[in-house]
Amino acid sequence: xxYVKNAWYVAGWASEFDDNxxxxxxxxxxxxxxxxxxxxxVAMEDRCPHRLLPLxxxxxxxxxxxxxxxxxxxDCQGKCIRVPGQDNLPASAxxxxxxxxxxxxxxxxxxxxxxxxxxDDIFDMPxxxxxxxxxxxxxxxxxxxxxxxVAENLVDPAHVSFVHPTTLGNTASENVPVHAATxxxxxxxxxxxxxxxPIGFFKAFGNFSGNVDRWHYYNLHLxxxxxxxxxxxxxxxxxxxxxxxxxxxxxxxxxxxxxxxxYTIDRWMHLRNTAINDQAVSQNLxxxxxxxxxxxxxILEAVQREENRLQTRKPVRIAIDKGPxxxxxxxxxxxxxEKAENTVV
Length: 345
Ligand code: FES
Ligand SMILES: [Fe+2]
Known about the structure:
This protein is of the alpha+beta class. It has helices at 147-153, 160-163, 200-205, 279-307, 322-344; strands spanning 8-13, 22-26, 29-35, 41-45, 59-61, 64-66, 73-74, 80-82, 97-103, 106-110, 134-143, 179-183, 186-196, 212-221, 225-234, 248-260, 263-272.
């Protein structure tokens, strides 16, 4: 499968990387990563150029990796620095190294053309460092699903009424139309549900006694980061669209890392404008998110299984599909653009 390569993908939370060699697959490439003595995380192709043993099965020698089969050794730029039994070190023995950058306790990797990599392009939001907001790293969902299907689910506010009836949705929202638009490179889909019972999330967490106005704004950043802005405010507050900070507001972030065309890792976290530094609230929210996201996993894996079977008709498209359709088109455009750039060179 083709992927957008010139982008920063999440390899893991920074806390996941230590001295040990860690094997990952990202965009169908096997990568070995570890935290070097400098404190920086490094990443290399996880395959010895001799007999192809994964280097993650070898061992660290200082900041180099020694292959576990015949001891060829590679520094963390991928350069071969030792071939046991001979003095010459052929340049053809060097392996690929990947750029890695850490920001806000998240480890990002660049799988594409290193000339095009700029750490300033790494996803960011001012709320990460704003003391009025709490940023809490969650966990990783492993989905047996293509990342495009997962991303589509994350620009799709309509599914919450049916997939998440106890946490993120309820029947009050079933027929509320979804708006969709693009804002530069970001694809947006959103809706407000006015004057309705709070959803499970805000019953557990928002302390609302009566009806609320609730919003869901799904913002999809290419190639595969979703920012879901959702919250509630008492209906009598009559919140305007741009006053969402006055309500109880949450951002659920999903960083999708395509492993292969049938497998995606979705690392999720949240930012909230209430209960700052309250660990108990973070844990409670994690539990609510875990319940909700397990529901998405079930749906998405079932969809993938059907997609893998013989197709007899084209899927029907309905009004709520605007965001997903724009997303698929833009991903294809990006992949074509990268291919065209590579053929020019
Ligand atoms: S397979 Fe790595 S040195 Fe032989
Ligand atoms: Fe969902």
